[in-house]
């Protein structure tokens, strides 16, 4: 579940926490005017009370900017094929890494169970003192619980990563169309999937985009013969998950 960014009275603002001040780095805060008909953003001045970034920018201006930016994410047949190939390579790499992590944990699990069996046999044969058996068994139980928990986490993260890959494709295909007419919460969700950093300074919005969207946008702005640049994908994982 995404965390909603709200103001007074639970009001949700689309870009609060998304855009920072290009002068001092503070997050821009939102404020309503004329009974909520107009929304403006400005620097809080939390780091510098005299920050020149305290000049306001209208939410509608930011919306137009982001809508235009996202409108540039056009999936041509060539760029779609490129993105699919990158995702195929990523999921193959993910499959290998997850299988290796699971195999290692399963091996650890088997070792722990074997040790439990051995100390049990040693105890019933009166080869292991009761107090020592209790201590070792408690330690092995903790290790087994931790190993089982890690296995569950890896499997759950692995399953969720496929949804992330599909979300990348959906955003690349529809973000520009959906953004301008979407509710504030949907705009925030789209930007969190696409934007890495965003700042506003002296009337200019500066944006760094996450991959693969940065490369898709550059490919659309600077088309080459095959319709896509080769500046990005080099084995980077498109399906992020918890580290093994």
3D architecture notes:
Helices cover 54% and strands 12% of the residues. The protein contains five helices and six strands; from the N terminus they run E-E-E-E-H-H-H-H-E-E-H. The protein has helices at residues 59-71, 77-124, 130-179, 184-194, 213-221, and strands spanning 20-21, 28-33, 38-43, 57-58, 195-201, 204-209. The strands form two sheets. Strands 1-5-6 form a three-stranded mixed beta sheet. The chain has a three-stranded antiparallel beta sheet with strand order 2-3-4. Helix 1 (59-71) packs across helix 3 (130-179) and helix 3 (130-179) packs across helix 4.
Quick tags:
244 residues, 54% helix, three-stranded mixed β-sheet, disordered C terminus, 6 strands, elongated, disordered N terminus, mainly alpha, 12% strand, three-stranded antiparallel β-sheet
């Amino acid at each position: 579940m995404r965390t909603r960014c709200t103001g007074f009275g639970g009001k949700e603002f689309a870009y609060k926490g998304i855009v920072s001040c290009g002068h001092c780095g503070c997050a821009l805060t939102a404020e309503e005017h004329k009974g909520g008909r107009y929304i403006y953003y400005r620097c809080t001045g939390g780091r510098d009370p005299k920050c020149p970034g305290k000049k306001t920018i209208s939410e509608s201006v930011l919306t137009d900017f982001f809508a235009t930016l996202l409108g540039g994410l056009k999936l041509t047949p060539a760029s779609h094929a490129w993105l699919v190939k990158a995702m195929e390579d990523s999921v193959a790499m993910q499959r290998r890494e997850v299988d290796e992590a699971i195999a290692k944990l399963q091996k650890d699990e088997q070792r722990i169970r074997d040790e439990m069996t051995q100390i049990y046999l040693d105890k019933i044969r009166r080869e292991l003192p009761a107090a020592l058996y209790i201590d070792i068994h408690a330690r092995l139980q903790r290790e087994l619980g931790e190993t089982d928990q890690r296995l569950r986490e890896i499997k759950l993260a692995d399953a969720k990563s496929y949804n992330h890959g599909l979300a990348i494709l959906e955003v690349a295909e529809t973000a520009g169309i959906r953004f301008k007419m979407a509710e504030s919460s949907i705009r925030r969700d789209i930007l969190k999937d696409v934007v890495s950093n965003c700042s506003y300074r002296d009337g200019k919005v500066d944006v760094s985009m996450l991959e693969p969207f940065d490369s898709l946008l550059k490919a659309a702005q600077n088309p080459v013969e095959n319709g896509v640049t080769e500046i990005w994908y080099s084995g980077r994982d498109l399906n992020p998950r918890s580290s093994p």
